[in-house]
Amino acid sequence: MAIEVLAGTLRDHTTLHVGGGAQLIVRVTTDQELIDLVRNIDQRGERLLILGGGSNVVCTDQDFPGTVIVIAVMGIEWDEGSVTVAAGENWDAFVSHAIDLGFGGLAPLSGIPGSMGATPIQNIGAYGVELAEFIDQVSVWDRQDNVLRNLSVAECRFEYRDSALKKNPSRYVVLSVTLQITRSLEIPIRYEQLAGVMNQEIETVAHAVEVRDQVLRLREMKSMVLDSADADSNSTGSFFINPTVLHVNAPQGCPTYSLTESNPLAGTSVKLSAAWLIEKSGITKGFGLADRDSRIRVSRNHTLAIANADSGSSREVIELASYIRQQVFNSFGIELMVEPVLINCELDQLTRV
Q: 155: exposed, middle or buried (C-beta count within 10 Å: 0-12, 13-18, 19+)?
C-alpha cells in the first residue's frame, strides 16, 4: 500500500485535540515504508514527528515545520510464550485479544488509549502493573546509527513512566514490541483500589476477564477511556507523574505507594499521589482559569487529567498546567513532572521564592 497523505491538522490526530498543521502528514502501513521515509527525511535534515494514537502528546498551536508520520503498521505474531506486536496495533484491542486467547496478565492495563509503539516509550502502567514486566525486546529503527536494532530490557532502561526511548526521542522509531506472557487467566491483584471494587484482598487471585471489566469501569468513571460522548476524555490521560520523595518529606495524610524493589530509592523514598497534591493545593475537579476565559479545564472526573472540553488551544493547556504545577509547588515545595510529550511547547518556569 502506498504512503497515504492525511488531511487536517495535529488537532485531528491527537486525543487532546490541540495542535496546528504541518508541512505534511502521512500514514505508513509497512515497516519498510516507515524506515525509507524516516531515512529520507533524516538525510535531508528536515524535522520529523512520529505519532501513533496521539494519546500522549501536547502539540503547539503553531504549524509543525516538517513531516508528521502516523504509524499504522499492523500485525501480531504468536510464538511459544511470546508475542510480537506491530507498532500500529491498538493497545487495548490487543489486550482484549490476548485475554480471549487465555493470556490474562495484561488485564490491569486495559483501557489505556494509544498504539503499541508508544507503550514501551512511556512504560505504561496502571493498577499495580507496568509493561516493562512483560517486555522481552523492542524492535526499533536507530536513526543515529542508521540500522535496525532489537533493544533488550536492559538497553531500554525502563523506569516509572520513562525509558531510554523517551529520553532519546529523536533516535529511536519503534517498529514492534515482543512480550513474554503466560497462558493463564488467573492473575494477582496488586492495587488497593482495584482490590476494593472486586471485594478482594491485595495479592489474592482474580479472573482476568473480571479484572478487565472492573478496570474499564474504573477508567470510564475517571474519563480515562476515550469516548466521543465524554468531553472529559479529550485528554492525554494523567498529565502529571506521581512524584518520588524521601519518606521524611512526604506530606502528612498524602497517599503513598511503595517503590519497586529494583528501584535504587526503595526503602528510603516513597511515591506520592499527584492527584492528592493537586487537590490539596486548591485545584478541584472541573477547575479552569476563568480569569483568562480558558476553554481548557481540569477533568470533572479526575484531577490528574487536563481536558479540552470546547475547542481549546495548546496555549491554554500550557497555562493551566503551569498554574497547577505552581500551586502544588507553593503548597508543598514539590515539583510535578509532566507525563505527556510536549511538542514545541513547554510549561512556564516555576517561581521559587
A: middle
Q: Are strands 57-59 and 341-343 parallel, antiparallel or unpaired?
A: parallel
Which domains occur in the chain, in start order?
Answer: 4-71 (3.30.43.10), 76-186 (3.30.465.10), 231-343 (3.90.78.10)
CA of residue 252 relative to chain centroid, distance: 29
For 134-201, what is the HEC assignment? CEEEEEEEECCCCEEEEEEHHHHCCECCECHHHHCCCCEEEEEEEEECCCECEEECCCHHHHHHCCCC
How crowded is the C-beta side of 85, counted as CA atoms within 13 Å?
25
Identity of the amino acid at 48? L
Read off the DSSP letter of residue 255.
-
Q: H/E element holding 34?
A: helix 31-43
Q: What is the mean pLDDT of residues 227-239?
A: 96
- Give the predicted TM-score (pTM) of the model: 0.94
pLDDT in tens, 115-171: 999 999 999 999 999 999 999 999 999 999 999 999 999 999 999 999 999 999 999
Query: So what's the pLDDT on residue 1?
Result: 57
Give the pLDDT mean for 201-220: 97
Buried b (16+ CB within 10 A) or exposed e, 17-52: bbbbbbeebbbbbbbebbbebbeebeeeeeebbbbb
pLDDT digits (tens, 9 = 90+) for 302-322: 999 999 988 999 999 999 999
Cβ-proximal residues to 255 (8 Å cutoff; 6+ apart), any chain: 272, 273, 276
Q: What amino acid positions are annotated as catalytic residues?
A: 161, 238, 339
Cell numbers placing 171: 533516535
- 210: CB partners within 8 A, 6+ apart: 198
Q: Which of 66, 48, 20, 114 is nearest to 315 (CA)?
A: 20
The mean pLDDT value of the chain amounts to 95
What distance, in Å, lies between the first and last C-alpha atoms of the chain?
58
Give the whole-angstrom CA distance, residue 307 versus residue 17.
9
Distance CA 161, CA 166 (A): 9
